[in-house]
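Predict the assembly for these two chains.
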Amino acid sequence: LAKTTQPISMDSYEGQEVNITCSHNNIATNDYITWYQQFPSQGPRFIIQGYKTKVTNEVASLFIPADRKSSTLSLPRVSLSDTAVYYCLVVLGDAGNMLTFGGGTRLMVKP
Amino acid sequence: KAGVTQTPRYLIKTRGQQVTLSCSPISGHRSVSWYQQTPGQGLQFLFEYFSETQRNKGNFPGRFSGRQFSNSRSEMNVSTLELGDSALYLCASSLSPQETQYFGPGTRLLVL
């Protein structure tokens, strides 16, 4: 299983862009990169998923370089409500639904 | 479309008892997975069901079991509860095993 490494915590201020980088050096050809957001005592919420280059949705952007050994989640103009734990996962393309969560990045957005 | 629902939301049990948790997936989703989340161990995969069959199982003792019904609803059971089973139990559903998983709000279990 491809292991992910991401910062334990990050601080930001309202209105700033936040970039959280995740490394996954042994990602396999069939693997996808997925990010979830989790608030305390709630289930993780799917943010974005990508395979290569750039993916953008109404919430975030995901940048994946050509070697796919890392990825960066970009949250534009964060607000206080974006304070949460963000998980980077490498999802095995052919191994069903066994998600392996790491420790995540605890993002604190300050006023 | 309604999201994943889990019942009950909160539960208090004592050691040695058994508990059954229920999960209703998003309409049309046929794959259901269960996870345990604790402060010490984080989010850990329990098991995955698709078409009423268990496809994968995490590294948990046999006291943890589950099943899936023909309508894709799923239940998990924990027998002979231990204090360490206190956790947030999360259910996630997806259209099929290789699709994006969407999580429910979880069931908070406290074992006294």
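Chain B touches chain A through 28 residues (CB under 8 Å). Chain B has a mean pLDDT of 95.
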